[in-house]
Design brief:
single chain; about 375 residues; mainly beta; five-stranded antiparallel β-sheet; 30 strands; about 5% helix
Length: about 375
């Protein structure tokens, strides 16, 4: 097994030579073991740590990585209209954290052109179509997760010089490291429900991390559940009193193309995770968003082939239904909901060396 964040796009070009000897030593140490994860599992498989859930049952669901609120989900067909914005981001980016900031949104970290982690925090006004640098993270990271909690913005873990455990907070125009996750974790996802951020899946540099964590302050974390199928690069959104964890990568090597088609549902009230359905094909590196009471999965890739398909996850049955197409096939984008509109931010088509500067507006058909 090779730590996925020991290659160039986590170190950055300028760190390659500095860490070459360390990378070789890590490779030799890791070749002695292997870890594999099944990409499929029975739909009835369930895990539970309900005894460790200490918060009341949430009554309102938040939207994927954005932390925005979602209305009660429905089961009717709900196509999503994806329209490319006529303006571009000030900088191309993939694998960022994207969080709401009133009527604007913030892009925190990610991969910049040349496969290098960036520390930039970019503020974007989607109505005016303008963006500008608002600050810098304390540590350049990508493949992180994030949350807006009580007027503060948090970035959890990610890849940098290696897989890291740092929690960074952006408060009053300044970013600082304020805490650490229980373990180092990259390639993770998150969702916010009623003031609680949930951290889902990821990779600790050696193995998958099945634990689902919860925090209300970005500092203290508790384990509230476990995934049935441990994954990294999963699409995660919250709706209907549950977290929906769709697809993801099951390989522990960066070059691995083993993905899962599993659709997993974590019940926020009981602490149980159940595999409730399957995508039509295995998919990783997709983005999820909760919009108009529906959960949508956007883009992603199977092996090295990116997808333009939008899937709606039926929150009553767990089935995946076609719900439209993106303007182009892409993976590893960020997402956010502001002003009732969803936005798909940046991403990749040909790989992390050439991120996108595009923004796609997402609206339910007829909305």
């Amino acid at each position: 097994m090779i730590d996925c964040h020991c290659h160039c796009h986590c170190h950055g070009r300028r760190h390659r030579h500095r860490h070459r000897l360390a990378a070789v030593a890590a490779l030799l140490a890791l070749l002695g073991g292997a870890c594999s994860t099944s990409a499929h599992g029975p739909a009835s498989t369930t895990t539970s740590v309900a005894s460790r859930v200490s918060t009341p049952v949430p009554t309102r669901a938040g939207a994927g990585n954005s932390g925005a609120a979602a209305s009660n989900p429905g089961s009717a067909s709900a196509p999503l209209v994806a329209t490319p914005e006529p303006w571009s981001l000030p900088y191309p980016v993939s694998r960022p954290v994207v969080l709401p900031d009133g009527a604007d949104f913030l892009i925190l970290g990610g991969l910049a052109s040349g496969d290098v982690s960036t520390s930039r925090i970019v503020s974007v006004d989607p109505v005016a179509g303008q963006g500008q640098v608002a600050g810098q993270l304390a540590l350049a990271v990508h493949d992180s997760a994030g949350a807006q909690l009580h007027g503060e913005w948090f970035v959890f873990g990610g890849g940098s010089y290696s897989t890291v455990s740092q929690v960074q907070a952006w408060v009053a125009g300044r970013a600082t490291q304020i805490a650490t996750l229980p373990d180092a974790r990259s390639d993770l996802s998150s969702a916010v429900v009623d003031g609680t951020a949930y951290v889902v899946g990821g990779f600790d540099g050696t193995a998958m991390t099945p634990d689902i964590l919860a925090t209300t302050d970005g500092v203290s974390f508790r384990t509230v559940g476990r995934l049935v199928v441990p994954v990294r690069y999963a699409a995660v959104a919250a709706a209907g009193g549950a977290l929906w964890v769709v697809g993801g990568v099951t390989s522990t090597s960066e070059g691995g193309t083993a993905e899962t088609d599993a659709i997993q549902r974590f019940d926020l009230g009981t602490g149980q995770t159940t595999q409730v359905g399957h995508l039509p094909q295995p998919m990783g590196h997709a983005t999820a968003i909760a919009l108009g009471g529906q959960v949508y999965v956007l883009g992603g890739r199977s092996a090295t082939v990116p997808s333009s398909t939008i899937w709606r996850i039926d929150t009553a049955t767990g089935a995946a239904q076609p719900a439209g197409n993106l303007p182009q096939a892409l993976s590893d984008a960020g997402s956010v909901v502001v002003g009732g509109v969803g936005y798909l931010v940046g991403g990749e088509v040909t790989g992390p060396q050439a991120p996108l500067a595009t923004v796609v507006a997402l609206r339910p058909a007829g909305g």
